[in-house]
Design goal:
Radius of gyration: 20 Å
Distance between the termini: 52 Å
Number of helices: 2
Structural class: alpha+beta
CATH topology of the largest domain: Trypsin Inhibitor V, Chain A
Number of domains: 2
Largest sheet: 3 strands, mixed
Length: 101
């Protein structure tokens, strides 16, 4: 009897681990809920000065969830994230290039 109660008590916890939260960009969620960066429209931002408004434009154009500014000479990790856009800046804080990952 105690074993049955223990199993019944843990079932909601197991079910909660298996499902993603609504809007979650991670595997297990609905594919429509994912943020996936698309680099097809990113070349248009080359040469523009970095700003919050530009960051919002880049996020909207790319479909990404996050944006990472990369200043001249800054080191970055080599991890790939399909929900991120990286914007590389030159010495004058202007967009040198932008790419997904």
């Amino acid at each position: 009897m105690t074993r049955l109660l223990l199993v019944a008590a843990t079932l909601p916890l197991i079910a909660a681990c298996a499902t993603a939260q609504p809007g979650s960009p991670y595997p297990g969620g609905n594919s429509a809920d994912r943020y996936v960066c698309s680099g097809t429209m990113l070349a248009q931002f080359k040469g523009r000065p970095a700003s919050a408004e530009l960051a919002n434009e880049i996020i909207r154009s790319s479909g990404s969830k996050t944006l990472q500014w990369v200043a001249k000479g800054m080191m970055v990790t080599m991890d790939y994230r399909d929900d991120r856009v990286r914007v590389w800046l030159d010495g004058q804080n202007r967009v040198e290039r932008a790419n997904c990952g």
